[in-house]
Amino acid sequence: MGKLTLFAIIGIWLLTACQEQPFFQQSYSFKNNTWARKNSPSFKVDIKDTSKAYNFILTLRNATSYEYSNVWIYLNSKSPNKEFAREPFELKITDEKGRWLGKKTGSIVENRLVFRNRKLSKPGIYTFVFEQGITKKVLYNVLDLGLEIEEVD
């Protein structure tokens, strides 16, 4: 192995090793790329430090054959002391002219929705459940849904 190759490998390793990893990252893949209304992806997160704020990042990946310009999603949250909250939000997939808003790679489009600087009141296990809120019982060409949580410095 030449010196140049060795330096390149070490440089790449240093760049990737120094990147800060999210506090939590998990995704849910939809069977047959179909999000049925009865299917509600759920994520459990252990929050120990409530003095920090967190960024919650929702990622939805769909195929370019997805037939709508948006998707309504309900976020249901359950705190460690069993308090419930339900928040509806709209994730735009295309603009008014049908152009993809997210990052497109081949036939896959990735859209992100970021909730910045959220504080949580109690330490413990939080459960986040996502429901699709479209009037159709089934959304086709939806690949996966991910939740990432970052600690805010």
Structural write-up:
This protein has 153 residues and is mainly β. The chain has a single domain (23-152), classed as Jelly Rolls, CATH 2.60.120. It contains 1 helix and 11 strands; from the N terminus they run αβββββββββββ. It has one helix at 3-17, and strands at residues 24-29, 34-36, 42-47, 53-63, 70-78, 84-92, 103-105, 108-119, 124-132, 138-140, 142-152. Strands 1-11-4-8-7 form a 5-stranded antiparallel sheet, with no helix packed on it. Strand 5 and strand 6 (84-92) form a beta hairpin. It is globular and about 45 Å long. The model has no long low-confidence stretch (mean pLDDT 89).
Keywords for this entry:
single chain, 153 residues, mainly beta, Jelly Rolls, 5-stranded antiparallel beta sheet, 4-stranded antiparallel beta sheet, 1 helix
Summarize the structure.
The protein has 153 residues and is mainly beta. The protein is built from 1 helix and 11 strands.
Secondary-structure blueprint:
Elements (H helix, E strand, L loop, with lengths): L2 H15 L6 E6 L4 E3 L5 E6 L5 E11 L6 E9 L5 E9 L10 E3 L2 E12 L4 E9 L5 E3 L1 E11 L1
Antiparallel strand pairs: 1-11, 2-10, 3-9, 4-8, 4-11, 5-6, 5-9, 7-8
